[in-house]
Prior knowledge:
With 76 residues, the chain is α+β, with helices and mostly antiparallel strands.
Amino acid sequence: MLILSRKKDETIVIDHKIEIKVISIEDGKVRLGISAPKEIDVYRKEVYIEIEDENKKAATGNFDFQEIKNLFYKKY
């Protein structure tokens, strides 16, 4: 893992394609702005894990339709 220090309005560039900018730092929270090409999916990790879990359930045929429906109406 690469660990970097950045201040407000400073940026990190990944692979000449993805730019991550520190927007603000307040009350122990860091707000980031992410610019990436449309073909690159960007997810918060907790959302990514949910997607992966649902994909695994769908691949095995063991999934709950109500649970999938709830994903579309879940507020993040």
